[in-house]
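Reading a protein record of the kind used here takes little practice once its layout is understood. An example of such a record is reproduced below.
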Amino acid sequence: MIQIIILDFDGVILESVEVKSEAFRKLFSFAPEYVAAIVQFHRENGGMSRFDKINYIYKNILKQELTSSGFQELSDNFSELVFHEVITAPYVSGAYEFLEKFHTKIPLYVVSATPEDELIAIVREKELTRYFRKIYGSPRKKTDCIHEILASNNAPPLSVIFVGDARNDWDAAKAAHVRFVGRNGPEDTGQFTGCSGIEKVIADLHELGRYIEENQ
């Protein structure tokens, strides 16, 4: 029996992954010769927090020192760039219907790399708060959030499914020993190739809903 479903947000509930790509492109427009590499790094590391990405970009791509004030400014600018665009992003096909149908049947949680305060504000603006038992975001690590959900519900790991759209999501599920369902977005990059133990790969949340019903 599936006792708990944990959902990533960008790319699972909203089609907002490319919003973040465009934000990184604008954020680092002051270094045009590096923008392509920066956006590629972002896309290849879905599920990593923007804070970790910014630090990595400065250290390994720009090869510059990043001051604490500079880091804060970049983080604030990123939030300003994405907040409205994420709110207006379309739902992943079937996502709203999935939330409506399953939130009264199975406890639903969000675990995302988006900063938690920002994520809660986005969920509130989308009027989705009532669907979720709790919303988790960065700087907390996804594995730690999953462990907290397991402990608070006294749930066996194999009764929990985490739905994510990135290899980092699979890493978190594997580390927490919960089941994993991967979602391939409109531009499948083959991010789950070679990942062992994936229960299913879905194209949208209509497909996820059918899978949950078949396995209850």
The chain is about 50% helix and 15% strand. The first strand starts at residue 4 and ends at 7. The first helix runs from residue 17 to 27. The mean pLDDT is 93.
